[in-house]
Design a protein that fits this description.
Number of strands: 2
Largest sheet: 2 strands, antiparallel
Strand order of the largest sheet: 1-2
Shape: globular
Number of helices: 3
Distance between the termini: 39 Å
Length: 72
Amino acid sequence: MGTEPWISAERVAQHLGVAKDTVYRWRERKGLPAHRIGRLWKFQLSEIDERVRAGGADEAQLSDGQTPSPNV
């Protein structure tokens, strides 16, 4: 069995169909699984998919209690 590749926030954004800034915001506010390698944040799609399926990327209620604007 091969190891899963580490991917960039840009690739995660493409996979989920969201903006790269959204990926970083979810990492910061919602604890989206990410690992810092040097100055870069890297992700594994299996961890991302698991979190999304569990509702971890839902922006209906952000961790700071604010409701996002419709443009988010």
